[in-house]
Amino acid sequence: MKYYYVAAEQYGNRIAEEGIQCDESGVITVITLKDTFLMDKFVLDVYTCEVLGLEEYSLFEISLKGIAGELLDSNIDNLFSEFFQVLTQPFISPGFLKRITTYRYEGMGLDIGLHIVENKEKFDDEYKKKILGYYHEIE
User: How far apart are CA 6 and CA 29, in angstroms?
Assistant: First the structure.
């Protein structure tokens, strides 16, 4: 498993320099994914667009050594919520973070191969269920 943290693009440099602070509840929301980039990018796009409401985001991979607290299920209500967890620790040092890059939401899709879903209206629940099923098939 790999652990990721997503932040609004404008906070990327600060996080890279100062690390990740917990929220007012004392947790850090992380995304737990396998190492299958195309599917993982799809889940990250869903999280950033639908949960965080962001069009551009900075992505950080968290080293396993940076995970010191307990990982719990989040209370995020989303079809892909099984990938969104909360980490009960106050801080993750920048030494445990690898900044991947800054992404722009693409409406990524995987039907037959990789293609871009041009209209967000096509990115409906039925389509996401199909993708989630495919994600579980490749486990």
Answer: 9
CA nearest to 28, candidates 80, 82, 77, 70: 70
Q: By residue range, what is the domain housing residue 9? A: 2-137
**Residue 111 in tokens:** 């039907």
Q: What is the total count of domains within the chain? A: 1
The answer, as to whether pTM is greater than 0.70, is yes
Per-residue pLDDT tens, the chain, 139 aa: give them.
Answer: 899 999 999 999 999 999 999 999 999 999 998 766 666 777 888 888 889 988 889 999 999 999 999 999 999 998 888 899 999 999 999 999 999 877 777 665 554 444 455 555 666 777 777 777 777 765 5
